[in-house]
Amino acid sequence: MSDDYCATPAAPTAAPDPTDAGPPFAECVLCRKPTEYPESYKGITLCPVCEWHEAQRTACSG
Fold first, then answer.
1. pLDDT tens across 19-59, in order?
2. Integer-rounded Cα radius of gyration of the chain
3. Which DSSP string do the residues of 29-43 spell out, in sequence order?
4. Long-range CB contact pairs, 10-19, < 8 A, 24+
5. Contact, 26 vs 45, CB < 8 A?
6. Phi first, then psi: what are they for 4, rounded to 5°?
7. What distance in Å separates the CA atoms of residue 8 and residue 4, rounded to the nearest whole number?
8. How many helices (H) and strands (E) does the chain have?
9. Rounded alpha-carbon distances, angstroms, from residue 17 to 2, 26, 43, 49
10. pTM of the predicted structure, to 2 decimals
């Protein structure tokens, strides 16, 4: 029988800093938070939250 079940788990590793991941992202034009778009993206850039709110506003404005 193996003693692996009672073994002490290894210490968790630190999560990578999200600011170091990927290319520089454009800021949201409404709240200034990072968006999913690169800085080179042309046009209005919105973060996922503001994009969702904008979609709700335009869907209800019939």
1. 555 678 999 999 999 999 999 988 999 999 999 999 999 88
2. 21
3. TTT--EEEEETT--S
4. none
5. yes
6. -65, -30
7. 9
8. 1, 2
9. 37, 18, 28, 21
10. 0.56
